[in-house]
Specification:
281 residues, alpha/beta, Rossmann fold, seven-stranded parallel sheet, 13 helices, binds NADP nicotinamide-adenine-dinucleotide phosphate, NAD(P)-bd_dom
């Protein structure tokens, strides 16, 4: 019998584009979906969702940045006969109280947990790849990363491990249902240490500068970000600085529990990424 396709939302994003080839190498059919993918999927256009869900066995969900739509999406998935959901959330999603930060993730988790389908939630810490594919890349090129991240160490996780876990869970029916996996790297390091490792590998100075959250918000707005978005990002770092009391600054063994091997080190990420030249000016 031909296996049912796995629907991967956020197919062009940092996790989706890593999960898709892993599923295809296992010989599984994949429906890669996002606004700009071959299969068009838009969180703001529910009229197109049923066609995207038709015949699908499992879904990898990268939730939208606003609370709400995942509830309707899960109802449509149930009606379409989908059997399993794997949701990308974030480490500590249940420790952020009423903060605006993470409302999207908490809401998506609620929608998935309330479903009748087999579900698994992945909660990674900050990605290693934020340093070359996302917000920290431009500051590293400029030679200085300015953040209100404090001295609290962060157990950065490699996206290759997040993708390995997601692909394993998506392809192991009945083994990870009802589980919430907190995914970390093998050790926590401060942003200053992370910058130092990247600087050493690149052979040029890259420094870390600690600022207050208000100063960081002002910096982001001067760089052109809207006031609300800037506040939102700064709030994420305020949450991170509470990581010692909330537990999100510590490592877990949940990558190893799913994969049967240790997570990749930050140093491994650094040598691989330095070789691509992405940090060269
Ligand atoms: N960065 C971190 O350290 C970190 C840590 C833990 C959790 N997270 C969570 O990771 C999630 C982001 O996942 P990611 O990094 O894999 O994605 P990403 O790299 O941020 O890319 C976003 C993906 O979503 C798609 N997309 C954007 N708007 C859409 C819309 N309206 N409808 C449908 N698809 C849309 C984009 O493709 P198109 O443009 O083609 O639509 C793209 O594929 C966030 O929820 C974040 O909270 C991040």
């Amino acid at each position: 019998m031909t296996p049912q396709p796995t629907l991967v939302l956020g197919a062009t994003g940092k996790t989706g584009r890593r999960i898709i080839p892993r599923l295809r190498l296992r010989g599984l059919p994949v429906r890669a979906a996002s606004r700009t993918s071959d299969t068009a999927f838009d969180w703001s256009a529910p009229s197109g969702w049923d066609a995207v869900l038709d015949g699908v066995g499992a879904v990898y969900i990268v939730p939208p940045p606003t609370p709400g739509p995942v509830h309707e999406f899960v109802a449509r998935a149930e009606a379409a006969g989908v059997r399993r959901l794997v949701l990308l959330s974030g480490r500590g999603a249940d420790t952020w109280g009423d903060s605006i930060f993470g409302q999207d993730m908490r809401d998506a988790e609620d929608a998935v947990r309330a479903s009748a389908l087999e579900w698994t939630i992945l909660r990674p810490n900050n990605f290693d790849q934020n340093f070359d594919e996302d917000v920290f890349h431009a500051p590293l090129l400029a030679g200085e990363l300015i953040l209100p991240a404090g001295e609290v160490p962060e157990p950065f996780v490699d996206l290759e491990d997040v993708a390995d876990v997601a692909a394993t869970v998506l392809t192991s029916p009945g083994r990870h249902g009802g589980m919430t996996y907190e995914l970390t790297g093998p050790r926590a390091l401060t942003f200053e240490e992370a910058c130092e490792l990247i600087a050493r590998a690149c052979g040029r100075p890259i420094t870390y500068k600690q600022v207050a959250a208000e100063e960081y918000t002002a910096l982001l707005t001067r760089q052109g970000l809207g006031a609300e978005a800037a506040h939102h990002i700064a709030e994420m770092f305020v949450m991170m600085t509470r990581g010692l009391s909330t537990g999100t600054a510590s490592t877990t063994d949940e990558v190893a529990a799913v994969l049967g091997r240790s997570p990749r080190t930050f140093e491994d990420y650094v040598v691989r990424t330095a070789a691509t030249g992405v940090w060269h000016r």
